[in-house]
Amino acid sequence: METTDFVVVGSSGGGGTIAWLLAKAGYKVVVLELGTDWARPLEDETLRYDPDRPGKPLPNEDLRYNPLPHDEYRFRVERPEWKRRPRGDYNTYRSNEFEKASPFGAGWTASMLGGGSVIWGAWCFRALPIDFRLATHFKETGQAEILRNEGYTIPDWPIAYSEMEPFYNVAETLLAVSGNREPLNEAIRQTRWFERFGGMPHFQQSATEWFPRFPFPCPEYPLTPAGFAVERGFREINWKSARLPSGMVAPGSSGYSTREAIGKALDQWGADRPEFWDRSADTIWSDRIRDACNMCGFCGEYLCWGKNGPKSGSRASSLKELRDLPNAEVVTNAKAYEVVYDERTRRATGVRYLDISDPDRPRAVFQPARFVIVSCGAVQSARLLRMSGPPAGLGNRYDQLGRYITFHLFGLGTACTLPPKFQGALHGHLGHTGNVVSFDPYFLEDKETGFWWKGATAVSAAKKNPLENATGAVRKDLIHDGLLDNLEAYNRTMEIRLTGDDLPMASNRVDLDPSHVDEYGLPVARITRGFGPAERRMFKLSLKALEDVWRPYTALPLTKTKSSEGNPTLIGDHQMGTCRMGDDPTQSVLDRFCRLHELPNVFVVDSSFMPTGLGLNPMVTVVANALRVGTWLVEELKKGNDLERPLRP
Amino acid sequence: MTSFTRFDAEQSALLEEIGEALLRRQNGAPLSLRELGAIPFLERLLAETSGDADLIAHFEKVVQDPLRSCPIQEVRDWRARRGLDPEAKFDIVTSENLMRAGEDQPISRAVFYVEYIPLLVQAARAAKKAPGYDSAIFAKELSKNESKFWPSSSQKSAFLIKRLLEDLLYALMGMQNPIDETRRSAFLTKLGELRRVGNKFEPRHAEAAVDAFRKALDEASQSPREELEEVPLSVPEVSLSIGNPPLTTKREHLDL
């Protein structure tokens, strides 16, 4: 097989984005995607769902995830869930390193062309400048020692927000983010924690870093009743809020030109643009117009059925551009199992994968390449590198590979069910999940100690999936009146969800399970994940406020509220860490350009690179970082720098 | 491969009866599963997933020799060098790679029904001969593995009830029944669920919904408790072109 310049393993926000950039720069690129292209019925008329014969048997099993019938059971309820993981694969889980891990079905982002960027919730946040300086922050506040003693290892990122800023601008154009910058900036500026710390030297970045001036490329997503209700509740407890920035082409618009939006990002960049970006947007992106979101309500976990990509993700943007290029190839159903390492030259030579187009008859294939870019999600990237190279894994000389994984605290939040009179009034079906956000709990004050601890973003959420709820109720043994009451109450319920920043601990990690293997005999990933004191503090410090948000409604008779704590086994979409970047090779896996410290031609560009997890959806940061790394690669190669040289003898 | 064709008349009627009993309020009107095309949908679902039995057979072979398809050369040495156990295990049950009956039995949906339906028929025939037969009580006892009419078997009646109920809810809420659109979404409408395949909205619809919600909140704050218990006669009109009939009152809530 012909040697390619870059082989990119994974096609989501990281892999899909950098693959496009490198191919656009003229390099030969092969993308290996583990899953299939579930969204192809959108483009292949012969696979089109026939609305006159709803529910007709699907032509073949591959169309299990046919986007057109909006099949809630197939997308959200059915297990096994092969849109997230390939047949016969799984992870194991344990809560601490002294336990024996057990197989479980979670811990996967997605296995499909476009990866998690296809089925994500489309919440589009930049990391805040303080997220790059969390170690400094806790040192300044006198909390660093406490956190260290509790088992946390919190580094500053090796790069500053300012290095990411122009790439954030471009990332937001690729993701067609709908939002209104100024209210969002104000919602941050007016938080109590910003008032408390904003004057400290390590907070004082330039104003454009904390409060970007670059307008979101699309107008803000419409307010929904659930968003309205939660916004009112936030005001009740003096939390500022703003409309959630959404990765959707704005409803009601006439469409979206990525090219035009990139042009505006380039204007903002100014004169110091790297060579790749130092040209007209016309030569960077096609004239494709993406359709406006029609607020159909089938978003999270579903494939957007809009043919021209109303919902953002690499499948709707960079991968479409990539497919226009003659020097790029996308291989689906390619299960990578080894980054091939040449001990003599101390470099990678390519990737071995199983072609599982016919999963009963897998075929081993070697794709030689000058550079390998890994982007399989933090769990699977760590697994792949562990299976590669020396016995400890590739890039793992200092036992850092796989460590410090964070998943965000999911499950933590409160819900409010309105009285029966409100049946249907919340219109939870309008648009995607999430509508209003508050940054107030991004740091949470402990009044007893006076310390502020890292928290989360809080987002309003409507209940959108009645069948999933019904199935859950049955599994809780509800029948008769109990079941029907539950089903009826569902659409009158709204939630506040916290995307909690679980802090990195060395003991929370991914390695290879010592005994369990997948269908093809490959060791599965073992996830060790437990909560520490910081996570438990987050529950304690946030729940009271989250319950108080519902005060405007609990005054109504028959209103019910419910609280839930974070659940350590809710592991899936957001996976950060395992290949954290840093300047010290003994404390990190990747350098500041996401290259393995130990190997000059292997990069990792999914959210594995993140030294800390942020308290918000990482997609925009992943896309921006992939643009940053890709841009650096192109620059270095154009300069003639020999990136294939071993870093140390 | 166990392929599924159709339920016979007695089986169909029994599944409808049990389903209607499970989804009925104590003093409520019955839900007509026949009107909603639930059993034909279930039959098609079973036919569609018949191939899962082949996958189970395949996975069971992998369990016997987990490393047989491994592409890594000299995989046992490779595992040893990495400190992995000499014996590899392939898990198909707790890893949720297959549907399960109960905790640990991998099974395809088609095989599951083929195995369990005759037991249900046997139990129902016996129950109906007993005086004072009540389908609601019978269904409830089955759901708790407490029916004295369920044949002595390793197959538990609760597994069947849960599977059946989940599948029937899929039929009622999945909007893929081979029936007209109004009935296809009738159950959802009764629940106040307005999301439909093909829905299209614009910002003005969201704005109208927010206005109506704000108004409803203002009114509710003045309303006595008993008014808040009532399900409204209609919901704010968002788009009638998608076929959302207004909600009915709670009294006839499941009287389809």
Which terms summarize this structure?
heterodimer, A: 649 residues, alpha+beta, seven-stranded mixed β-sheet, six-stranded antiparallel β-sheet, 18 helices, 21 strands, B: 256 residues, mainly alpha, two-stranded antiparallel ribbon, 3 strands, extended, disordered C terminus
| Main sheet overview of chain B | 2 strands, antiparallel
Characterize the main sheet of chain A: 7 strands, mixed
The count of DSSP E runs of length 2 or more, i.e. the number of strands of chain B, is 3
Number of helices, where a helix is a run of at least 4 consecutive DSSP H or I residues of chain B: 11
Helical percentage of chain A? 25-40%
Structural class of chain A: alpha+beta
H-E order of chain B: HHHHEEEHHHHHHH
- What does the overall shape of chain B look like? extended
- Overall pLDDT of chain B, averaged? 84
Explain what this protein looks like in three dimensions:
The complex is a heterodimer of chains A (649) and B (256). Chain A is α+β, with helices and mostly antiparallel strands and 649 residues long. Chain A has 18 helices and 21 strands. In chain A, the strands form five sheets. In chain A, strands 1, 2, 8, 9, 10, 11 and 21 form a seven-stranded mixed sheet that branches. A six-stranded antiparallel sheet of chain A has the order 5-13-16-17-12-20. Chain A has a four-stranded mixed sheet with strand order 4-3-19-18, covered by helices on one side. In chain A, a hairpin with a 6-residue loop joins β14 (443-445) and β15. In chain A, α1 (15-24) packs parallel to α18 (619-638), α6 packs across α18 (619-638) and α14 (466-475) runs antiparallel to α15. Chain B has a two-stranded antiparallel ribbon. Chains A and B meet through α2, β4, α10, α14 and α15 of A and α2, α3, α4, β1 and α6 of B.
